[in-house]
Amino acid sequence: MLTSGMKTLRIPAALALLASMLGCSTGPLARAVVRGDGSAVAAQLDKGQDINAKLGAAGQTPLMIAAERRRLEIVKLLLDRGAAVNLRRGGTSALTLAAMNGDKETVKLLLAHGAEVERRDVMLVQGHERAEIVALLEAAAAKQTAAESGPAASTVAVSGVDAPSYKTGERADDFALIVAVPRAMDGPEARFAGEDAAAMRRHLIALGWPSRNIVLLTDEAAARAGLGKYLERWLPNNVIENSRVFFYFAGCGAADASGRPFLLPWDGDAGQLEATGYPLSRLYDKLNALNARAVIAVLDAGFSGAGPRTAAAAKVKAPAARVDLGARDVGEVIALVAAQDAEPVGLAAEEGHGTLTYFLMKGLNGGAADATGAVTVKGLYGYAREQVGSAAEREGRKQTPQLLTGDLGEADLRLR
């Protein structure tokens, strides 16, 4: 026993008090993380433990504790389970702690999962012995700046709608997942998908989505496993009742012989849709399962098998006459799809964007504003539908964007 003042504490109680004073938690999840016991960590999460819980007096998340204790395998496990990589306590994140510890492998892993670098992170790890880590942080910070300032250099002039002309207050609980597949591993090209995604990210930030709550997946990161991980783990583990969730996809779609549509991830193959594609029905199911205030999905992809941003499925000799976009499956998700049925989608080539995305951004910049200056989902859709349809007619084709509201009825959600 230990004696402290007038109180006598048994050893376990004294250790608990000491742990609390040091900012640690004696809870089972925290203890499992500290021990590096992956099985025990997984068991606690399977029991419903909050993966982003504030543990101990310091309020660290399990990911922060794992990073601080150099538990690389636990960091991997938590990230795979959808832990929020950019949460900070007192300005300190898991990345900060790993960098201060000189743990290069954990730093690289966190950066690969979208950890954002702040100036204080670099300042805290200055020194010759951490030169490699400083270089990693500075390179990541430069990449962040480039992503926020504009899309990658292109032979096509950057559109005038890329930069938001407005700014709304930040909503800390809002989350967004942006997916861009400019070219699949073995499949078709989706021209301008990367430019669409970069510009959409800037508009979401202007609409109040915190940059730390936006994940952008592209190229290999947008493979089926990555898409599933962030849709089916990251979002459910972070979204709360007050959240607005935005899902955006720029890439190719395909439909099977029955007209069932799929998104094509980076490793997707239109010849093996069931095995490699991501069904729209599954997308709606996962988004509906979120306990969120509102969920919006924008799909700038085609599903007919003909024209840009689409691929022909195996055993489909002609473009599908009908594509079931999921009006019965959309539930309480607001889904905006680039075209109806088997219509091909278009590209605003001179502007360097998909036609739908270009007019959505133009609408957000004021084209879809009502008499009070507000832009709602319904108003934005009406504006985009008219503009996209007119652009398609000038090219001698037809493209009719679709707004699916399912159980919600009217989509009057205000965006700005």
The computed structural class is alpha/beta
Question: Sheet with the most strands?
Answer: 6 strands, mixed
| Total helical elements | 15
In which range does the helix fraction lie? 25-40%
Order of helices and strands: EEHHHHHHHHHEHEHEEEHEHEEEEHHE
N- and C-termini, Cα separation: 62 Å
The percentage of residues in β strands lies in 5-15%
Overall 3D form: globular
How many runs of DSSP E, i.e. beta strands?
13
> Measured on Cα atoms, how large is the radius of gyration?
24 Å
Instruction: Name the average pLDDT.
Output: 86
Unreliable spans are 1-25, 150-157
- Strand order, main sheet: write it out: 4-3-5-9-10-13
What does this structure look like?
With 416 residues, the protein is of the alpha/beta class. The protein is 38% helix and 12% strand. The protein contains 15 helices and 13 strands. It has helices spanning 11-21, 28-35, 38-46, 62-68, 72-80, 94-100, 104-112, 119-124, 131-149, 193-206, 224-238, 273-276, 280-288, 355-367, 377-394, and strands at 2-4, 7-9, 175-180, 214-218, 244-250, 253-255, 261-263, 278-279, 294-300, 334-337, 347-348, 353-354, 402-404. The strands form 4 sheets. The protein has a 6-stranded mixed beta sheet with strand order 4-3-5-9-10-13, sandwiched between helices. Strand 3 (175-180), helix 10 and strand 4 form a beta-alpha-beta unit. The N and C termini lie far apart (62 Å). The model is unreliable at 1-25 and 150-157 (pLDDT under 50).
